[in-house]
Structures are given as structure tokens and as C-alpha cells.
Amino acid sequence: MRRSLLTLSWILLRPILFRLTAERAHRIIMGTLGRSPRFHAAFIRMLGGPPSSPGPVQVGPLTFASPIGLAAGLDKDGEAIPVWPALGFGFVEVGTVTALAQAGNPTPRLFRLVSEGALINRMGFNNEGSERLAARTKALRKAGRWPSVPVGANLGKSKLTPLEDATEDYLQSVERLKSSVDYFTVNVSSPNTPGLRSLQQADALNELLGAVIPAAEGLPVFVKFSPDLEDEALAEAVEIAIQTGCTGIIATNTTRTRPGTTGRLNEDGGMSGAPLWPLSRDRIQKILDAACGRIPVIGAGGIRSAAQAQELLDAGCVAVQLYSGLIFEGPGLVHQITDELRSPVTQSQT
Ligand SMILES: Cc1cc2nc3c(=O)[nH]c(=O)nc-3n(C[C@H](O)[C@H](O)[C@H](O)COP(=O)(O)O)c2cc1C
């Protein structure tokens, strides 16, 4: 019954929000949640009841309260951190943040394909910068309001920083955030920052992870890959993640390709949501095969049901993340998934 109150609230809200542009709806929601995150967390808990985790998951030194996490990009600046665990997420990723605050690409830059259940975005890492996120996360800790689930910061390169200085840009964010977040994700896979995805190439990735991991001083470091990497490049990137000592791999980010869409909306950018699933599923399997259990893999890309989450967990992913499913299915989705997941979760990797 209580779960259905959360679903009911979405049935009422969705038609109103979907009349607005996708970015405006996002700004209204984030602005509202960000103004009083603790109040909203309590309200959501009241509507949705306590999360029914199928059990905690150990990933390196981190204990995820459940295997369902919030993917990067929804709460780029960490405005509403206390809200996400209340929705049932067992771990939370904020960002992408960059060393420099930046406005991102001109609007419109976020599009809904409602019938396909997809989003196309070319946001371009709009964010207030890692210094601002550090101030927010430190304040939360100081006030004793840090969530009981791990919160990681997803890091990217500032647009103004030349590609050859990318490592320095990431390091600056690591330095600012390492005392206040629980883990880092090195994002080398967003399609909307020119050149960023070339950091997935062997030499560049080796240099970047080889610098970030020691700088994180023991904090877990994940690396996030694109679904558009070819088999060989993907296998090579997996090896580098293992050899440099990454805690885990997150895959996948959005795709520049357009599988399963009508092409009706021919916007440039990265596509996420339902049509991404077959591609991300295939790429995740390639990563699992290449990794052979040597590194934990967190699956993402088009997850919208417990069956899909379960499929990835059964295939060997230690956890999954989602974003677009929440936009189409609403805030009850995480509870719906965790309620249905088989318990206990057997995967536990270090
Ligand atoms: C509007 C939007 C913004 C995103 N921004 C980021 C980002 O800043 N950093 C990142 O690593 N991934 C970003 N993502 C990708 C998601 O984290 C996720 O990897 C991808 O959308 C696939 O999952 P999904 O189909 O469940 O959304 C973004 C996705 C969307 C839809």
C-alpha cells in the first residue's frame, strides 16, 4: 500500500512534468529537492516505506546497502544527496563534476523520446565545479547528515582544459573531494565533451588511472566505459582497469548510436534508456568475459525492471545503476526492483 502511494504520486505528477521540456522538469524537481532534501527524504520515506534491500553488497571496501545505485548525471552537483537513499538506492553517484565550474552546452540539450522510453542528452558536463561539491559534501558530513549508503563523485574533464592536461584536471577534483566522498568514478565515456572518450585508449587511460588512484589515497576508484567501444578496445581498457588497481568498472554510459529508435528525433548527443539495453547488455557481457571475475563490474544502461537488474546480477555484475528508468517509471521504481530481486544477493566481490 505505502509503495503504491509513491507510484500514485508519480501518476499525478508525470503528465504535468512531461508537458515541460525535459530540462525544465529536471530543474524544477532538483530545485525542489535541493531546497530541503531532509524534509523530502522524510516525506518520500513516509510515502514509500523502508527500502526492502535484498541484502548488502560488498564492493572492495564499500558496503552498498543494496545492489541498486543511482547513476551519475541526475544529481550533478550533489544538491539532494539525502533524498536518494530514501528512494531505496543502495549507493549514490553524484557528478559529473569538473575542476572548473561550467555552463555546459547551449539549450535545448536534453530530449525525451517518450514512446521509446529514451533520453538523448548533450548536456556537456554543466556543473558548479568540484570545489562547490566539496563544500556541500563537507557540510553534510559536518552536520552529521551523511547518508548511511556510499556516495561517490563522478569526475570529468573541464571543457576549457586541453586534453593533454586532462590528468591535472581530474587530480584537482580528487584533491578537493577525497576527504568527503566515499568513492570516485573516473568518467572517460561521456560523448558530449570533445576528446573525452579518447581517454579510454590504452596509453591515456593508463596515465590517467595511474595518477588518480594513488592520489585518491585508498579511496575506491571506479572507471566508467562507453557502450561504443569496440571489442578489442574494451578488452584492453578492462586490462588497464585491473592492472592500475581500479576498484571496479561501471558500464555503460550513453551511446552515440541510435539502436531501436525511429529516428524521428534526430538530435545529437548520448542516448540512454530502454533502447540502450540490448547494446549495454552486450557490452557488459563482453566486460564480464574479459574481466573473468578479476574486478567487480557495475552494470548500467536501460534498466527499467527487476528482471533486467536480476539478469545483470545473475550474469556476474556485483551491482547495477540506473537513471533514465526513473524518469519514465517514476520514483517508485527502485522499491519495485528491490522488492522483486532475489534475496539474498549472492555476488560479493572484493
Ligand atoms: C541527462 C543525462 C545526463 C547524464 N550525465 C552523466 C554524467 O554527467 N556523467 C556520467 O558518467 N554519466 C551521465 N549520464 C549517463 C548515466 O549515468 C547512465 O550511464 C546512462 O544514462 C545509462 O543508464 P540509464 O539508461 O539507466 O539512464 C547521464 C545520463 C543522462 C540521461
Notable traits:
12 helices, globular, alpha/beta, 3-stranded antiparallel β-sheet, binds flavin mononucleotide, 350 residues
Please characterize this protein's 3D structure:
With 350 residues, the protein is an alpha/beta fold. It has helices at 2-17, 22-35, 37-48, 83-86, 130-142, 166-177, 202-215, 231-244, 277-291, 306-315, 324-329, 333-340; strands at 57-59, 62-64, 68-70, 91-97, 110-113, 118-121, 151-155, 183-187, 221-225, 248-251, 270-273, 297-300, 319-322. The chain has one domain (2-340): TIM Barrel (Alpha-Beta Barrel), CATH 3.20.20.70. 52% of the residues are buried. Mean pLDDT is 92; it is low at 345-350. It binds flavin mononucleotide.
Outline the fold blueprint:
Layout: H1 2-17, H2 22-35, H3 37-48, E1 57-59, E2 62-64, E3 68-70, H4 83-86, E4 91-97, E5 110-113, E6 118-121, H5 130-142, E7 151-155, H6 166-177, E8 183-187, H7 202-215, E9 221-225, H8 231-244, E10 248-251, E11 270-273, H9 277-291, E12 297-300, H10 306-315, E13 319-322, H11 324-329, H12 333-340
Parallel strand pairs: 3-4, 3-13, 4-7, 7-8, 8-9, 9-10, 10-12, 12-13
Antiparallel strand pairs: 1-2, 5-6, 6-11
Helix pairs in contact: 1-3, 5-6, 6-7, 7-8, 8-9
